[in-house]
Amino acid sequence: MLAELKEKVLNANLELPAKGLVLYTWGNVSAIDRETGIIAIKPSGISYDTMKKSDIVLIDLKGEVVEGSLNPSSDAPSHVELYKAFPEIGGICHTHSRWATIWSQFGKGIAPYGTTHADYFYGTIPCTRDLRKEEIELEYEKNTGLLIVETFKDIDPKQVPAILVKNHGPFTWGKDADESVYNSVVLEEVAQMAWTLESRDPLLKQMQKVLLDKHFLRKHGDSAYYGQ
After folding, report:
1. Is the sign of the CA dihedral 167, 186, 159, 200 positive or negative?
2. Sheet harboring 91-94: ordered strands across?
3. How large is the average pLDDT for residues 92-99?
4. Does the pLDDT value for residue 1 go beyond 80?
5. Mean pLDDT throughout 28-33?
6. What's the rounded Cα separation, in Å, for the pair 207 and 204?
């Protein structure tokens, strides 16, 4: 079971450079086995070009390494907090993809302007507040995860599986590692579209709520009918 989890996490991480979402060693993907509470995650600072399944690190929900000779991603504490707070998710992806990171550095959420956005995100993709000085200086990565959880206090993480961490970059999630990466790819596309639109018209109105409802719910609602 855990060997299969490591294989899936390796393949999901390798999708990041393949899809143009990362440079060098930037970014990481993880997945959790909910029965055991074990998380498989990319090792810190390891090149995608040389990464092997044996390099993938297993940690528990305390963030402690249970298998592997390498250090887990430095963002592992953020992943842990999301898995603890969002029990329905099975995979998390963090990148510094260009367009989503531009929005993160701009400090503004991405509003829904069209059906591409609405097919995957049920409303605005939020941006967090600034981390406070003490949150940065003490347990920075853990507090980044807690900040994401705080931002989703009144948002369903299943309906908006992405966030922009202010001055940092995007996190996405899904039912497994593959879906978390898929959502990062879609996020990058809608981030570029929205930036282009707002650059042309800063007063642009969001899409109709009825159209947003139609496109999201036909794929993700109780009576979804999109696909096979």
Report:
1. positive
2. 65-67, 57-59, 38-41, 28-33, 91-94, 169-174, 162-165
3. 98
4. no
5. 98
6. 9
> In the chain, pLDDT over 70 holds for what percent of residues?
99
- Three-state SS at 90: coil
Contact yes or no for 66/59 (Cβ under 8 A): yes
pLDDT tens-digit readout, 34-56: 999 999 999 999 999 999 999 99
CA–CA dist 94, 25 (Å, integer): 12
The residues annotated as belonging to the active site are 119, 226
Question: What mean pLDDT comes out for the span 159-176?
Answer: 98
Contact predicate 46/74, CB 8 Å: no
What is the structure's pLDDT at 40?
98
The full 3-state SS of 117-169, as one line of letters, equals HHCCCCCCECECCCCCHHHHHCCHHHHHHHHHHHHCCCCCCCCCCEEEECCCE
Domains of the chain with bracketed CATH:
2-220 (3.40.225.10)
Neighbours of 14 (CB within 10 A): 16
